[in-house]
Amino acid sequence: MLPIVAVVIEGILLFHTFGLQGLWVITLSGTLLLVVHLWVNGKGATQRLIPVGNDMEWLIKGIEGMAQKAGIKRPAVYLLDDYIPNAYSFGRTIVLSLGLFEVLDEEEVLAVAAHELGHIKNGDTKLFPMVAYGRFLLMATTSLLLFLGSNFVRLLAALTYLMYELSRGWFMKKREFMADDTALRLLPVPLSLKRALEELKYYEDLRESVKMSALPSIEPNIERESPKRSLVGTHPSYEERIMRITAYVTSLNNRIQ
What we know:
Structural class: alpha/beta
C-alpha cells in the first residue's frame, strides 16, 4: 500500500511543478519505457538458458506434481550454466543454476523449486518487475524534482522516495516469506526447504570467508543483471527464514500428534 501512496504523492508533486501537461508527458514517457523494458527483458530472458533434459525426469515430475497441487500450470524449467548455486523465476519460468545441483540433493533442489513456484503462484513474477521499475521511475522523477522544484517540493520528493524505499523493502521481505509458506504446503517433506537454506547459507559463509563477491540466493530475478545498492534490505536473512520454517514444521507436527 505504501509504495502506491509514494507514487501518488510523487504524481502530485510533478503536477505542482510541471502542470497537467508536464505530468502527462512524464506519465506517457514512463509507460512507454515500461513496455519497452518488459518486452526486451522477456525476449532475452531465456537466451543464455539450457532446457532441462530427459536425464532430469525426477525434477520435471517433482515440479509438475507441486504445480498441480498449487493449482497452476507446470512452469517451464531451465538450467543456468553457472557454478554459483542460485535459483530465480520470471513469468511462468523457473531457472536453476548448475551449481545448485553440486551442493544440494534432489529433495533439496525440489524445495528450492517449490519456493520459486510459490513466487509464481502468488503473482510475484508480475509484481516484482513492476516494483523494480517503479523504483527506477521514482529515482528519475525525484532527481528531476530535486533539480527543478522549489525547496518545499525538494524536501517532499526526498521524503517520498525514502518512503518508497522503506516500504519496498518491507513488501519484498513479506513476499519472500509468503513464497516460503507456499512452498511448505507444496512439499512432501517441508523440512527439505530448511535443509536447502542451511546448505546455501553454509556455502555463502564459505564464499565470504575467502572474500568472493557473488552470493547464492533463491529469489526472483529482480535487478539481477545489474545489482544496485539499496537504502534498505529487500530479502530476509537465512536465519529468519530457517526459524520460521522450523516453527511451521513444529506446529504441523504438534497438530498431527
